[in-house]
């Protein structure tokens, strides 16, 4: 499904990491998804970091099947390809995960052009030469194969099926064991290849009937589902709750379409298994599937309604062919069976089935999808308070549990004999396991009454116990009350990982054996809470998002539960963090089944607690060393006590294979080491691709400066307090005999404060390097002191200054740039993006000040300064490069000093040796730029036209004004060049070669082969006539060869105007114009006249010059949209240009997935709108149309409007508080709300729908104008809603849906009159603005709009109405409000985004 290269060659041996396994029951093949190149992991990490900044989000329903895009899942962007689109739902294929995903447009974005260069991180394979003997995988084989994910193997690539991007991979150890246990057979590789190819082709050959698409569910994951049908414990249909609204909308569309239409587009389905539309016994139409052939039925046929999972017998006459638009929508209702119940357990009685229905049917429950077998998902359902419904039913029915083989532990080590032995033992009962010293499970070992070393309880029969992955995990009451009661028996030992160290008296350990369970839990948390909305917090145990990494963790609120920021402790790791309340969620009971994974400890019998400042770094070193060893760390429980909060505290010793932390620290404390005459250095775990907030402390140049990390500020402040205290207690001493070169010291800095330093030299003057700032300065003898031996903090805190350099900056930087950087950067805060890391620890970075890229700014300044330097020394007769592209810089009439500098930069960068005929490599400040050399087009030319004059840049740098008259009608030599071979409705891939504005720009074809040929021929023709005189009459329209003085090259041209010895010519292969001397013009050979011009003149469609004009800002924005970018133009019309004898094409342009015509609308000033505006000032009886910010089209209907029918005011009063939802959010000054009680809204919606259908064939009254109430059809769901006309334009009208607040453009034929009964009902939506922000006294920052939208959307809000006034531009009231969202006052939160106007007082 992916076209990215990177597949291995057949016959090669590869190391693979298996990530996922799928057993195909229909053909007996084993599908693997593997990581082929784990050594390039860091490259993919960099790529993942890079794509977190997408190009832009999707606008509405963008994208087509096959497009590459990014999808937002679990707080991160992932690479994907669109597979299909149905309504607002996208089925995408995750390129680097190898699986499908269902998304909405809000979670999709376009990636940068280089985001998809890397091949997929995960490749699809078929396990070579292994085929199920029974065409169906037995459970013992399934158990073995499903244990493979997470393991590394060596495999041999036998074949690569390029068309399907599938690798046939032989993994000898897996094949050997599969054959050994007689659950597979081995067949020759070529024969196996043919078999796989036939399997891949067979669905295509059976394309006579399309089938429903069921997206594959992610197993070993939780989902919220609605149970729609229960037939028995092995046949339960569940619908994913997340798509319930989409399914409901689709069901309504299906019913409405088949109720209203008799055209079904095909013959009635006949065969069993064919998708169809069927009318159910409830009278509604459904998406269905035939369960028997119609020809064999007796007037009645059995069907399955796929979206409900219900089977019914319906009359044959109620079967219709299913329209393709409904077939393409995926099915989100899945067949499930109770996990733990054998397929052949028993025959189910009606009483048992009814009991199961009472537990599940029509209820929304949390479901654990364990695995899939033969299209059926084995599921565990949870009810209120995490009650396991499976257990309740099994206990009631008194049945035997199924084999636990389907729940094997995920293996992280090579396949062991203990794993293989499970294949032969299918009837083992569930037992608790205790890990022995040899690492093998002990099925009969005893367990303690408190907590065994594996972290599991010993009571397997407890009703609260859940069997999953061979680990019986309970729901202990302490988990729900605090997750803190983690005590062990004294003398026990357990392998641990230390997850958090606060001090020697408080640190946190995790049990190593439970790491897999924790990993699964963390994965499920990210999936479950990635799209969860905030809810009120009523318990201290919750789920919180770590602000450092954006990851969700189980947590306990420690303090400030009702403030905007709360203190939480992550109960599985021990860390504490301050977290915004909006990033805290109530914990789903399903996530309480695993007890807290971090338990609190202190070191036992620490001899001298007063020396912990020295001992803590030693303990950290001990822990780091032990964690990196093969044996790891072992925790020995010496006693159990409680801390100051009453929480259990395990008194422990931490041991490695050869040492003990308590013993080591006792020795260190008794005999502290002598002070080292050097400071510690740290890399601070800064990774390539990582981002850090920094403070620049000093700068020598842009290639060598220093910063401190913002995250280290607390550590630095504490260390500085220690330094100040030491110096107060220390008697000043002369440094002569105490310090030498490289000695560490304290020295007085330029701010008169003392800091840590290192002596660079002592004579003839004392020079000190300030290690926490990066400066090296000369100091006096009185400004330097030695570091005392007892200064442990000052000695051991790592050096704070991190050396940096700007990435991709030349080494020879002008001193003016370095000085500018020092003056503007030192002492300021920035964000760095690490691009390169040298062995000495120096980082090369991209430096950002908010959205400003400092690297780009530095490069611009370097180019500007070098340009000035070059101009001062360049001669008047500079050589011009023989570039292969035509360059012209046309500037505005009112040339500013900045534009003059840019012009000089253009000329300077082109003044290179004439011997170099292929290298013009200047970057010209974004205005003139050489494109890809292989394309060899013209340099993009920015042109600004004022009235009818064009300014052309001469070789002697003079700027002269040329008038462009119309071509004379009597000219007999007009346009001898052929007309470009362009037809209406054709679409071409092009580049813009010359840009004046939306009404006048030239395009070249992206394929430049002909242009390259022409360049060569024109040079030869011009040089052959080097001394010839042009003998033909030079009249407007004459074709010729003209010398372009900027590069001294000959090009095909057409004369526009002649004035004495000067000619104004148009270069027909590029579109730019120039004034040339007559002596620089030659006749054009007929062979070159025969070539069609390679550039064609265009104008944007939809903007007639006689009906409006452009805003002055349009030229810069239009230029920047097109310059140096490939884009598509669709030819809509062609006519001859009025002033030059060439055709001009009216086009629709698309660039970077954007329609340029639509983007330019905001710069177009329609004369009709201006005329209407003038009329409105003269008559108050005409509604006023206004365009406001945020693309909100608004209106004002005067009191004397002929259409006196208006809606009532919403039933909202001042000083009342309402619970509402935001229905349409534009900005804090303009948003709409609806009351949470939707009974009135539903009634109005139903009445509007009925009224609209009753007027199905009614003609729209002509009296409907701006301000008129009406009924309008909303195209997205084909439903009728109450609306207000904003304006009419031709066959369309813009309307405001008064019950919701959103606006839409609809066809006039989709408007109807509004019955009086509906007019009398008050609108259910009401317009609001946030109180406390006067638009006349300030404005919002750009970030405000997205933040405000995120604060309000899809959340219940408490809204207090403070005042009401008439909106100045809309004939509706607007309410000034205060909003409380989840205990947080939104008005207060938004204050930081408000920029008050400076009154100058």
From TrEMBL:
Tudor domain segment(s): 269-329, 535-594, 738-794, 1033-1091, 1263-1321
Residue stretches in coiled coil: none
Protein's UniProt name: Tudor domain-containing protein 6-like
One Pfam family of this chain: TUDOR
InterPro entries per the UniProt record, alphabetical: SNase_OB-fold_sf, Tudor, Tudor_domain_containing
Native source organism of the sequence: Parambassis ranga
PANTHER family, sorted: TUDOR DOMAIN CONTAINING PROTEIN (PTHR22948), TUDOR DOMAIN-CONTAINING PROTEIN 6 (PTHR22948:SF15)
Region entry Disordered, spans: 438-462
